[in-house]
Structure formats: structure tokens, C-alpha cells
Amino acid sequence: MDTIINFMKRNYKILIAVVLLSATLFAFKINSEKSADPEKDKMLLELLTFVIEKGHYNPAKIDDAFSKGIYKDYIEALDPSKRFFLQSDIDEFSKYETLLDDQLLNKELTFFNLTYTRLMKRMDEGKELYKGILSTPFDYSIDETFNTDYEKSPYAKNSQELKEKWRKQLKLSTLSSLTDRLKIQENKEKGIVEKVEKSDSDLKSGEMIDNSANTEKDNASDGKPKTFKELEKITRESSLKSLDEYFGFMKDLTRDDWFSVYINSITARFDPHTNYFPAEEKERFDVSISGKFEGIGARLQKKNDFTEITELISGGPAWRGKLLEAGDVIMKVAQGKSEPVDIVGMRLDDVVKKIKGPKGSEVRLTVKKVDGSIKTISIIRDIVEIEETYAKSSVVERNGVKYGVIYLPKFYIDFENKDGRDAGKDVAAEVESLKKAGVNGIVLDVRDDGGGSLSTVVDIAGLFIEQGPIVQIKSAGRQKEVLFDRDKKIEWDGPLVIMVNSFSASASEIFAAAIQDYKRGIIIGSKQTYGKGTVQNVIDLNQFVRSSDKGDLGALKTTTQKFYRINGGSTQLEGVASDVVMPDRYAYLKMGERDVDNAMPWDKIDPAQYNVWTNNSKFSKVIADSKNRIAQNPQFKLIEENAKWIDERSKENNYSLKLENFKKNQKLIEDTNKKFKSIADYNYNLKFTSLPKEAEAMKTDVSLKEKRERWHESLSKDIYVEEALNILDDLQSKPVVKKEISETAKNKKLVKS
């Protein structure tokens, strides 16, 4: 479940760029005294150590080495780009480097209080720094550089050095935006209307990219070309606005939120998947795993002191009512007939709490509409299902043969409602519908699937085998447990391809491993999956405390078990190796469990007893033919080349702050990107369609129609799906007669750079 999130946490340098772009991302709190309760903090420390020591699969020894790990993780989390703390602060903090284990056992808060108070002070100073720096123009003629490898860069020795670091960092971010503005204006003068885009690989570590302004609007607000001086000023003002918003987000976190950062620096030393959830985070986790919540069905984000609706969830009460729309700003919230509460300036989490509520209850929102009018809108809350969380399928036909594609974003389940939706039931229904549609093969796509419930893995794997073991589970000091599919019925016995990538993790890895061990289907995708072979349980901490006046203490997600393939091997670190490895853009980047600090080790146990699928005689030849196709495919060769280039770019940290040099470097990057443009333009021109039931729903649900059309379009441009269909062709009992492709079609399929 938390694979991608953990990857993002480890790659915080990249996220510095992103954090300025979205109000929905978490930031940090400047109000230093809000919600302070030392006794609650001490209780949490005591509970956490107790629960972890008693419940963790293999609890770490709490000693000086443990302490050093906490110290390192926590300091990095507080100031990842080293733009707040001075070296003198770090010298003062470092006295505690080997004492944190003792402080934990003694429930002392000295270190946390010191670092927290100091950070709040440094953040206040930082706010003054950026305002002062951005008040005057930058000189882009100076030949100077800035290195964004914050991990290796030293802390500033004094306030003057820190100011210089801020200056260079801000100069880099404004330089990037200024270059875009200049290019747009130059193109307009030449009569070229061009949208300037940045590829994923251009998001460099630590860049604070100014993306808050619409550059085209800035350049053409009065229809006249702007001078360099005017564009430079616009860029600084835009950057100032972004940082004001960023520090505005900062004030929305409480001391408790910061204490959660400290706690999670402790829990991470046991293993990367042991995490503390404050009450709000636990609720979000439950929503994530169940795919539903009770409320109005609107996604919100904070913009300065205001709360804005960014999206209405298809099928939810707000969507059905047709009175709210994206862009509306919520001013007040009232429960039923009670007096409305002004929520301007209120933190986003508190606004959400007021708007969410039980099914059947009324909430009244006073909103400022996009057109400027003020309206009060009554909405009856209901159960909102996050549809894109759930399994979905599509049908495609080529060479007279139909195939089905099922996409499973996670192995979801509603633990609170046995009759609620779960991945096992939904995938079974999709398979049944695809059978009725007359498909001759199925592709099950679990790319980017971070996992979920193991019970759903058993149910889904059982759709494709007669019966037998699916996964082995081992708890500390106990005999292994084997989870079986005991249903002899096979829902689908035809050709099967499982698509994975390096972000397929946990439950999705066990599923792919079971299919592979049974030789039931062919696994295609990245060289290996993520490599998370552990099981976590979420433990409510409130159950250990009677009559507490400390409020909701949250929950602890801790590693309680390890799971193993039925062949006895672990997916921990190693993941699942694809039968057919397909080049992908991120193949050379470090983003697996094996690249995570403090990950649990690989091991193995005895295999379970199982019978291999017998109808697999074609597998070896089909795999060999697929590998041969990939090796000869120019598009895959281009993807491989792009992956190597992205890896090279990820290691580049030094940037020129001289405008001419920066423009030259950007031009080189853009020219190289043009070479890889055909990757995104690729299209094998097959039409994917929804199954009848969904197609009927799309007639009245505009949002669903739009989502499915986008998905179908992406499938028709996905070379990995194309190869999956090629494999299904090869797996047919009778050879598929393939139509000749015309030269025109070939040219459309592979767009030349």
C-alpha cells in the first residue's frame, strides 16, 4: 500500500520542486505552541515501544546504533534541503546522536523540544530571507553555479552563508521560469505558438520550480511584448507568491504533526513499513484500503486562507446535485439547521472534518461560485466510492480475436463491511463479464499496484487455478501458515498475461509470484518488482489506554509477518523477476525495497506442495519469441536509451546561474528530449471499448465517460499492453492470422523524431 509513498519520502529532494505546486501536499507548522501536550507525547512513546517490542516480527535492538539512525532520519526530515538549520544548530543537536535510545526508553522530550523550537525560529527567519531576496532583481550575467545535491552539501556556517544559499536556490527556480517566459515571448514574436513543457527527467533534485503563474497569460496580458526587466519582475513576483503559499501551508501543521515526524523517525528504524498514524492519517489509510468514505464527494485544496473545490467525485452527492463545481471556494460550513461556521483561515484537515459526516446527514456550504456569486448549498451526505480505486476492464479486438484487459490499482477490501466491495469479488465479476464478451485471452495489469489485502490475493489467484496454496506466511517464533484457494472452480482457464513494474509491490508481488510458480501465466514488465515481502497490521493505540483524556492517540502500522512464495522463496528485496523483461524509463533508478535503508533481509523457507499448471507447453517458445520481438523493436530500443539518459540526468546536480549558460544547457536537454518524443507519440491504433454494463452507465455519467475514454486512449498508446496482446496471440491454441500492416499505418504507429 505504501510503496510509492515510501519511494517519494526517500526521494524528498525531487519533492522540494513539487511541494510548491500543490496545496494538497503536507508542509510544516510555524505556530510553535499549538496543541502542545507533553504528557500525551510521553504516553505515545511508551505505547509505541511497548507495541513494537511485543508485536513486531523482528524488533531492532534499541542501542546507540539505533539512536544514530533516528538522529539521521529525523534531521533529514526536518530540513532536507539544508536551508533552515545552521552548522551551529547541528553541532548542538549532535550531542544527542547516541542518547536518543535512552530518551526513548525514559520518555524524555528534550531533543524533540530543542529541535522543534529551533526549527520554528529558523523558519521565521527563512520567511524574512526569501522576501528580502525576491524584493530586488537577480543579476543573471554573473557566472556562478548552484549544486542541488543537498545530501552532500554542508550546512551554512552563519546567517550570511544561509542567505547566500537561499539566494542561489531562488535564483535557480526563477531562472527556470524566466527562461520559459522568454522562450514563449520569442516564439510569439516569430508567430510560433508553443507550449513549453518539461519532461519528468527535467525535474531536478531540489529545484523550487515556480509553476504558480500562467506564463502565456503573463506574456500576453496586454497584447504587447514585455521587456526583459518586466519579465524578470513577473517571475520574482510569481516565485514570491509560491513561497508565500508554501509558508502558508506550513502554518497549518501543529506541534503534534511535527511530533509525528519524530515518532516516524523512530519507527522507521525497525523497518521502513512500520509507521505511526495520527488520527487523521489513520482515517485516510482506511479510506485508501476500502476505497470509500462518507461525505459529499469533493476533493479540496487550500489556497492561502481559502478552501477550494478541485474535483467532484463521480457518483457522489455533490456530483449528483450539480450545484457545486471545481473552482468554487467554500466560505462557511453548517451542520443541518445549525449556525454556519466561518472556515476562512481554518486548516484543511479541520475543514474536511466539518464537511464529512455520516450517511443521511445534512451539511450546508456557503460558497463563492466561479462567477463571483455567493450561494448556500444543502447536501445530504452519502457513501462515496472512489471509483478509480476499483478494478476495471476493457475489450479490444485485433486480427478477429478478442482480448480483455483488467486493471487492478490495489488489492482493496472493506474490513468493516463483509458485503462491501473487495478486489476478489470485483475481479471475479470482470472475468465473468469478459468471458461473456467472448475474449480469447486476458491481460491482468498490476503495474503501480502497491498491494493491500492478502485474502484478496488468494481469491484472485484462485480464479485462474483449480485449487492449491497461494502464499505462505511466517510470524516470529511460530510455524508457517499457508493460505489456500480451496475452490476447485476455475473462472478462467485460457491464456493469461500478468503485467508488472518496479512499483508493483507486496500483495501484487505475491499474486504475480503465485501465477509464475504455477506456470499459469506469463509475467511481463520491469526486470523485477518492488521487493516488499512483509505483512503489516494496523493496531489502534487507544485500546491500551482506559479513560484517557488525551484524545485520539492514533494507530501504529507495524510489521508482524513475512510472506513467502509457494516455492519457498521470499519476495523481500528480490521481488518477482519478469519472464519477459521490457525496457522502461526508470529501469536504472534506485526505487525498490533493496534501495531502502533498514529494509528487512531476504530469506527462504520450505516450499509448499502444489501442482504446476499442465497447459503451459508453449510458454518457453512464447517467452523466447517475445524477447526477440522486444530486442528488435526500435521503440523499445528508444525507451532503453531514454532510461539510460534519465539515469545520467539524475546524477547531474550542478547548475549554471548565468542566463546564457542556463539557456544553452536547457537547449541541449530540449534537443535530446525531441529524440525521445516518439515514445509519448507512439500509437498502435487499436480501439479499446468498455463492457456493455459500463458502456450503458457512461451514457448518463459524463465524468465516467471521460475517465474511460482517457484510459482507452492510454491503452492504445501503451507499447507494453501491445506486447502483452502479442503474447496472447502466441498463446492461442490455433495460430492467429495477422493482417498485413500498410506503410501508412506503420508510419502512424512509430512517429519519427
Shape: globular
Largest sheet: 7 strands, mixed
% residues in beta strands: 15-25%
* CATH level-4 homologous superfamily of the largest domain: 2-enoyl-CoA Hydratase, Chain A, domain 1
Poorly predicted regions are: 1-34, 195-217
Strand tally is 22
- What structural category do the secondary elements indicate? alpha+beta
CATH class category of the largest domain: Alpha Beta
Describe the structure.
The model is unreliable at 1-34 and 195-217 (pLDDT under 50). A hairpin with a 2-residue loop joins β11 (392-398) and β12 (401-407). This protein has three domains: 15-270, no CATH class; 292-385, PDZ domain (Pdz3 Domain); 387-650 and 682-747, Alpha-Beta Complex (2-enoyl-CoA Hydratase, Chain A, domain 1), CATH 3.90.226.10. It has 25 helices and 22 strands. The radius of gyration is 27 Å and the shape is globular. Helix content is 41%, strand content 15%.
Secondary-structure map:
Layout lengths: L2 H8 L1 H8 L18 H18 L8 H15 L8 H7 L6 H6 L4 H24 L11 E3 L11 H31 L25 H5 L8 H23 L4 H13 L7 E3 L1 H12 L1 E4 L2 E6 L2 E7 L4 H5 L7 E7 L5 E2 L5 H8 L6 E7 L5 E7 L1 E4 L6 E7 L2 E7 L15 H14 L5 E4 L8 H8 L6 E8 L5 E5 L10 E5 L6 H11 L4 E4 L8 E7 L14 E10 L15 E2 L37 H14 L1 H17 L3 E3 L2 H17 L1 H5 L6 E2 L2 H7 L3 H15 L2 H13 L11 H7 L4
Parallel strand pairs: 12-13, 13-16, 16-17, 17-20
Antiparallel strand pairs: 1-21, 2-19, 3-10, 4-5, 5-6, 6-7, 6-8, 8-9, 11-12, 11-22, 14-15, 14-19, 18-19
